[in-house]
Structures
1.
Amino acid sequence: MSETLRFEAFSSMVEPEFWSGLAHHKLHSARLDTARTLVRGEFSGGRRHAVRGNSAEPTQRLAVPARLRVNQGAWEAAQGNTQQQAGAVGVNGYLHNTNTIEEFKKRDKGELLRDAGAEILEAIRSGRATQTPELLWPFLLLSFADLKKYHFYHWFAFPAVTADPPDMATEAPAPLSSFVSRSSDLEHLLTTFAGSSVCAQGAFVARYYPSNVDNPWRVGPLSEWSEIYGSDKAEDGGIALLGFVDPSSHSTRPGWPLRNMLTWLRHCHPEATNVNILCFRDTALLAGGTVDSATLVQQCESIVVRVNVTPVASLTSECQVSGWERNEKQKLVPRIVNL
């Protein structure tokens, strides 16, 4: 099997308090200033929701959208407060608020994406993204606040550098519960994550040792690539994986953050052309207390995808960038909130 790797796009989820914060920002801080403003969002591992049928039908587990949440706390980013919920990954966003509806409609959407893509590529080239992985998945918010009617016109974008030709999935995605040799290895992985900060960073490297019953996992930040993933460890019996906190709950499609992670990979480690991707979705279990191994097997949502990574000669500002959010009908149009 070999097919184009497909991704589950982000879906924005904005709490009403955020729009109240935008009104306050417009009236008391920005006024007529249209310079971009730093805000904050977050996402967690994707989980399917259990839906009970009638007595003759079994309980179904349905996928839900990969949510990027923005709430009142988004405005605290400017004060350096970057805290997020337990198990969540923080994301920097850039608000571009316009003064009129005409400015909102005429703003060059392509230019906004290209500028964001150039910043992502610069963070990769400089090494800052290796130290701070969240620089790989910023979001944009173009808005106009009609404060007379309390209407908020807005459009989110999640910039992603496009691979050309696309990356390929060389094997069918496997549930993590079937990838490991023993159910207890899932418990070991959660324990390893609980004792480190790599999940909060959103991206990590891992090495799985199927023959090591007592200590089957080694996990670290992207900066420890050589120590954990490096090719010189090919004879140690471990299986190397590149991992990320995956907001998708789709059975076969990884979430949107993986797109720019693969861009990071092809630039920083071009020797890694075939990689195992651990799409870690079980952040909710990290905060849920102790769970026995048998229950973990049933509740585990994470998957492992084998990817053939497209090589690239260089990262340039001419790279194609996509990411404007589609509405419920899959059309590329802005949205309006009426408060």
2.
Amino acid sequence: KVLAPESVLKQRKTAEKFAINRAAKSALSKKQRAEKRQVIFKRAEQYVNEYRQQEREEIRLRRLAKSSGNFYVPAQPKLALVIRTKGIKKIAPKPRKVLQLMRLLQINNAVFVRLTYATTQMLQIITPYAAWGTPNLKTVKELIYKRGHAKVNKQRIPITDNSVIEQSLGRFGIICVEDLVHEIFTVGPNFKAANNFLWPFKLSNPTGGWSGRKVRHFIEGGDAGNREEFINALVRKMN
């Protein structure tokens, strides 16, 4: 009987030890992933119920106002989607700076903006160079799911996994894409962190092209300026 050298026995023992540790870690991570999935499913269900409830409440208030002969005035929108429609040439310093502050550095870039008095004034300054409006839930979801990229260590990383979100935004209680969509759409308390985590969306030119004169305001037959809920139709063409 030939005995194996001591060094080989040591190697085998170490390999067995590593295999046992790896199997234990794998089993633990599998269990944790399963638990996390349950949490994510519950949260997604909760968000769907919340969105439906908001929609029903809106309809109820409209009907109530109509039945009593009044007009229903919806709340002022808190969220805007801003799309840069003009290139880099022939832009005055002030609008150029505002576009830079809003991270709209390239044509067809899009970002979410919290609507306040200050941001509204900034949007007025860049009116000829950008189109904006109030996105609906479908638009927010489609943009994040299809065009969403994360900013991790100043790098543009595609959101292929919930772990990308959890590593950066886990401390804010945002662990999955549905959490991110909810935070952006409802303009929650951690909107700034969630929005900065998202790299500006890079959209395509709209199907069928822009209208004749992009610099003209939307209400004059152009593409620039505030188009309220009609921004959703533009995003469908560009996404």
3.
Amino acid sequence: MESSFINASLPDVADRMLFAVPKKGRLYDQCLNLLNHIGIEFHRKARHDIALVSNMPIALVFLPAADIATYVAKGNIDLGITGLDIICESQTADDVAELTRLGFGKCKLQVQTPAINSSVTSAQDLVGQRIVTSFVNLTKQRFAELEGVSIDRMKTQVRFVSGSVEAACGLGLADGIVDLVESGDTMRAAGLHAIDTILNTESVLITNCHQRFPKLVETIKQRVEGVLMARRYVLCQYNIKRESLERACVVASGRQAPTVTSLEAEDWVAVSVMIEKKELANKMDQLKEIGAIDILVLQIANART
């Protein structure tokens, strides 16, 4: 996509904040789901890479994920969703601000070699050999570090390929590769195993230092954080004798503090508290042990932090 295509001087987007999201790939569906949950309404026409939001002064710009950090850093894009790996690889970390991590698209950028090659057990064993990757900058940084030299003096040969990186060793192009690993199925199917992790990555919401719509950026940030909090927590309600309330609040203290309401029954209170989903089962067991009854769990559809 040419930069003129998304220039804010275009009549349809001149007064709109530009928000870049991946146009396809592993992050696309999860980004659309997030946009829906933060109340952004739009219709994307077939083969169009700009969609006007109908209920907010925003234009969504659908870009390759690998380009989003650069457009946010250097162009007119005010907000973007991309991977932390892309920010590091595009060397734009100094020009973008990370607003929040989104909790999806988690994977690892790893050095991999053929599993049958027992002589290679660490990335150090690949120094001076052939490495194929789509992440040339991060790979060069890692191997220059291993060699203890600057990038321009390193002996390791790093070659770029845009796809099917996992095939490079089998086809004789490389002694090792650097690629993203999510479940590891593709890596294992290609007969590879990981010997080093360069970066743990996930999707992030980013902006820049030359925002044209700072208030709107903050609104979207708050909405996203609210959705993430709702996905992380549930609301637990229970009744308990007042004499056991202090112990119950130690078990489940909430994000700030529980909400406590007196009941008609003497010496009983009702408690509402937010609990992380991953801790819920254990917390319910502990509350039951100290006398809580009528324990209910409610899903949180949305929230504000």
4.
Amino acid sequence: MSEYNQRKRQRATTPEFQRRVSAASLSAIVNPDPDTFIPSPTFHAPAMELARPQSPVRLETNLFGARPAEDIVRVVADFMYTHMKDRKNIEIEGKLGRLVDRRTGQRLSLPVVSEAALADDKNTRFESNMTQQQHAKFNQLLNQRVDETRRAEFRGARVEYRHTREIDHFYRINGTRVRVTRNKETGEVLQVITKSKIADLNIYSPRTKLDIRITINEERPLEIPDTEANKPILERHKDRLSYRQDIWSVDLTQVVSPEHEVGPANPYATGPPKTAPAVTTHELELEVAQPEVWLAERAKVAANQPNNFHEMTHIFLGNLKALVKRAM
């Protein structure tokens, strides 16, 4: 065994290595050889140097001796810190899709050659959708990652798989949009909420097929409404595959919205009510399954205490970038 491989195996048995690798192993997504070292967001300069030949010339990091933080990570971290606050019932997720120019109906095209966080622009919309072929490819890649993390030699947190089928019914109750989620097979009520948008951040990715949107919402739990007295305004059937590791969950969902009426009924109309056609979308979201962990790190930042807020942002964004780079 080479000296390099011996060092890898020794390092892999240390508690520090095992603690760190689980946080970033999902961002690898596919690693055919579990012995191959994969640089991760949580490994800093010493570990990164083991992955490349030693330079014959010693070079300083830069003129000032400190490596600057990636600007995109700083932007996302600032966005998170500003909008997370100390909210309860918070939902944090990153979505893959396409940024579309409203004026042309085509994918956004900007004069940049690398990813860029965008300021709010009324001429841009985000389509949280992908092709069925892209969805199937992600399904294959993530299933492969589940198998890889179950190998005896794998060191780190496993990726756990779950398949659910649910139905969402939306009601308008006293001006509030209420979502009732039920198990599609048993009819059991799983969740009753109203969702309020807090903020979103779009990331344009010209070198990949898809872009990214990071969203922060508040999901306030409610009592189930009188479903006999109130007619649902929308229905969605969700067939979801979830891949969970640590506090992150990658959700691959096929959403079918049946044909439904739109707009208020016109008592003077003589023809049939207006309807929206049935729609099927294929979605991928990276959700923070335990937002309280991130909120606790934010509280430490606010109290000027040592924290992992920036590191968690780095891992969250790293997972999104690893996913978007694998879009067909």
